[in-house]
Amino acid sequence: MRIALISEHASPxxxxxxxxxxxxxxxxxxxxxxxxxxxxHVDVLTRRDDASVPAVVDMRPGVRVIHIDxxxxxxxxxxxxxxxxxxxxRSAGQLFEHSVPYDVIHANFFMSGLVGLRLKEMFGVPLVxxxxxxxxxxxxxxxxxxxxxxxxxxxxxxxxRAADRVIAECPQDKADLVRxxxxxxxxxxxxxxxxxxxxxxxxxRAQARREMGLRSDEFVLLQLGRLVPRKGIDNVIRALxxxxxxxxxxxxVVGGDSPVPDEVxxxxxxxxxxxxxxxxxxDRVSFVGHRQREDLRSCYAAADVFVTTPWYEPFxxxxxxxxxxxRAVVGSAVGGIQYSVVDGVTGLLVPPHDPAALAQRLAHLxxxxxxxxAMGRAGIRRVRSLFTWxxxxxxxxxxxxxxxxxxxxxxxxxxxxxxxxxxxxx
Length: 426
Known about the structure:
45% of the residues lie in helices and 16% in strands. The protein has 15 helices and 14 strands. The chain has helices at residues 23-37, 85-98, 110-123, 135-142, 151-162, 171-181, 205-212, 233-242, 267-279, 296-302, 318-324, 337-340, 355-367, 369-386, 389-425; strands at residues 2-6, 41-47, 56-60, 63-68, 104-108, 127-130, 165-168, 188-190, 219-224, 249-254, 285-289, 305-308, 328-332, 347-350. An eight-stranded mixed beta sheet has the order 3-4-2-1-5-6-7-8, sandwiched between helices. It has a six-stranded parallel beta sheet with strand order 11-10-9-12-13-14, with helices on both faces. The model is unreliable at 16-20 (pLDDT under 50).
């Protein structure tokens, strides 16, 4: 198949962990590679945010990244991109007109979905949609802090009605689509995210700690990902303060928009440092800064426990990475985390905004290192059986096939009708 993978703000070429670069970028990059490995051709359509980048970049055999001109050729926060989507449609439409026909469009995020809807109308190409986050769910959890335009909700509703298939990444995602957007369950297919098992594998804790300058006797908690308030890192800091002082605990916070922790580049660091000072654990919280993808395995390896307690999380790839590295995960029972982490088997689930409950679970794992190790082993088995990118690509290709066949039949019927009409006129 020829697949147009639209991702307006999340390029597969972006540096992961930088501004507006996270799980969606990883998803698009690995889905594109996985589909190409299965013999499909993938064009990733993403907005040009740098005037110096080539129009087309061959990411690997079978995958091209096509930079679409839509708005200024510089970084624009995704919350401000909606007015530029008409330009994206025009530029992408010219590509569709002059290229070999695509078999399916797979749009990622609601603005890409808007583009995908227009291209579906113009060219009759079936549309598969992955939202990655839903506006109504975001509003439930963030209220007035949600900076996306109000039009997002109506756009998402239109996409749910008109897309040939909507991809839910976990059971909660599917339930939210049905509950909030009245999606027809039969038109929602569940395909999770995956984890790169070539990068994320078990490795030596002792060696990782030597490399990172950590003591061997510390109980190391790891928080890794984008540094934004909804990730609930302040909840982890408050839990750290509730642990018995006899536990030599240290929290590593990995992420941000610079390789060294910079409060100007990443304002969330300043807020979190203030929280650490407030509860008296500044000496036990280490901000590491941004790390390249290939360096993250050492961060997971150095930890005793991976902790992630966001207010909400549409899916969350970092728990999968931690599990692939053999680490127990303590996560909030929200969104995709309550699907990827099996409570009591691969980790422990806690309510969000509850540092006391989190501290209790962390103390339990510190007192039972054999349990934490067993959870790590169970996590490895779970990700290797359910969450490989190869499996994700195959399942997505199956979804594409289910929408491609009816679309091809409909196009064939239209062509036959036109031929018959021409014959009648003759």
